[in-house]
Amino acid sequence: MAISPHRIVYLDNLRNVLVYNVVVLHVVQMFGYPLFFWWAVTDQEGSSRFYETGLIGMDIYLMPCLLFIAALFILPSLNKRTPLEYIKKRFFRLCVPAVVFLFCAGDIYFQLLLTRLNRVAPSYLETFLNFWRFYFNMPGISVSGSEKTLNAVTFNLQHVWFLTLLFFITLMVVLWSLLLKKNNGEATKVDGSNKVISKTIIFAAALGLAYAAVHIYYVGRQINFSAWLLVGKVVQFQLNKIWVLLPLFLFGLYVYKKNWLTRSDIGSWKMWGGAAFLLLAIYLLIYHFGILPALEEIFKVVDRNMQSDDKMEMPVVADSIRRAFLLTWILLPPVCVFLLMFFLSFAKRFFNQPNAATTFCSKHSINVYVLHYAPVLILQYTFLNVAVPSMVKILLMAIIIIPACLWLSHRLVYPYPKAAIAFFVALKLMALAAGFTFYCFALLALIFISFAGAVYESVKYLNARTTGLKSA
């Protein structure tokens, strides 16, 4: 297995794919009405159940798999630094970008949402002030997603919730490693392939039952399990998904400690792929044909009730829908775990050779994750009334956003982080004075300049490589 000095190549490559999958997820949410009725920019005419089902499928594995991969790198990185040095580095790598994003672009979502819902949208300065006023006035523990109206400007961490959650649980791992430091040098017995497979299956099955039990408890207590809990105004997670995220993170630590990815055979990608896609197909078929028809009617009523004082009565949920939900709750964790094992074994088999492109993408993956959200919203708003098929819009936005974010990270954010922060803050302050239209045009210009720069440098690199190969 090809291993870089400090990294496992195929894990970096897998993380790259997942990060860019997150970009696609956010792009497609524009076409997920009514399931994603709350999204800032919605194209109701271009929406379809096909996109809703696709979004449900991506939501199963994206963040749990990213958290699992993050867990694999924590302990080896911690071994190379003192705990204080490591925490400091993670803070600047995870928390500082989150704060900069929230200040510079956290209110773009609400400005676009208010523009969609109101004939006359409030000024951008007013939205900005309301966004941060809500943050300073909110309690230490609050539930996001329980607002009575879509017109309310509230505070949430949006997509950077993942970064702050990862930093918080990283602190817990550092503390745990300090307490158990005396045991770090003990040799670890290598698990055989059958043992790895059996342990993984047992873990997936147990997690499925536990996940279903938590949802049954939530329903019995009339708790909105899809709501987001914001703790200490800095850590946010979804009430139901945390019961998959944390176990997958702990599973990642266990896999690292047992050396499964370096010394054990984790099983064939064909075996894991067959199991994963069989269960995934069952899961998505249940949603597509059994749950979404009823769920769409419910969310249409919720959408209307959150915009009007004249409330409609909520549709009755049939017992068959409840049983379908129960089955999906049992299936979701095994689908996630088996997909993870498939991704790992497949990437290990086919994507374990380093090259310039994947190394470059790995270097900038976190920055792409942070940067992409605002361009997604701005381009969705720009493409909303363009008369082209929804699939074309999705492809165009993905093709523009990913290279643009990579180039912006490569030429500005990564080499000059302080200058990048000063640039984005200055642009935001100008936008508060000049208005949201100015900000839209400025960000659009930045996106297309970055995209053009990415295309130019890619062509230049390919030409140089081709010339070098011919001369050799």
Topology:
Elements: H1 9-28, H2 49-79, H3 83-105, H4 108-117, H5 124-137, E1 141-144, H6 161-179, H7 193-220, E2 228-231, E3 235-238, H8 242-257, H9 260-263, H10 269-305, H11 319-350, H12 356-363, H13 365-371, H14 373-383, H15 390-413, H16 417-434, H17 436-471
Antiparallel strand pairs: 1-2, 2-3
Helix pairs in contact: 1-2, 1-11, 1-12, 1-13, 1-15, 2-6, 2-8, 2-10, 2-11, 3-6, 3-13, 3-16, 7-11, 10-11, 13-15, 14-17, 15-17, 16-17
Describe this structure in words.
The structure is a single chain. With 472 residues, this protein is mostly helical. The protein has one domain. It has helices at residues 9-28, 49-79, 83-105, 108-117, 124-137, 161-179, 193-220, 242-257, 260-263, 269-305, 319-350, 356-363, 365-371, 373-383, 390-413, 417-434, 436-471; strands at 141-144, 228-231, 235-238. It has a three-stranded antiparallel beta sheet with strand order 1-2-3. A hairpin with a 3-residue loop joins strand 2 and strand 3 (235-238). Helix 3 (83-105) runs parallel beside helix 16 (417-434) and helix 7 (193-220) packs antiparallel against helix 11.
Radius of gyration (Å)? 23 Å
How many H/I helical runs? 17
Q: What order do the helices and strands follow?
A: HHHHHEHHEEHHHHHHHHHH
Looking across the biggest beta sheet, what order are the strands in?
1-2-3
* Straight-line distance between termini: 29 Å
The beta-strand count equals: 3
Global shape: globular
Secondary-structure class: mainly alpha
Strand content: under 5%
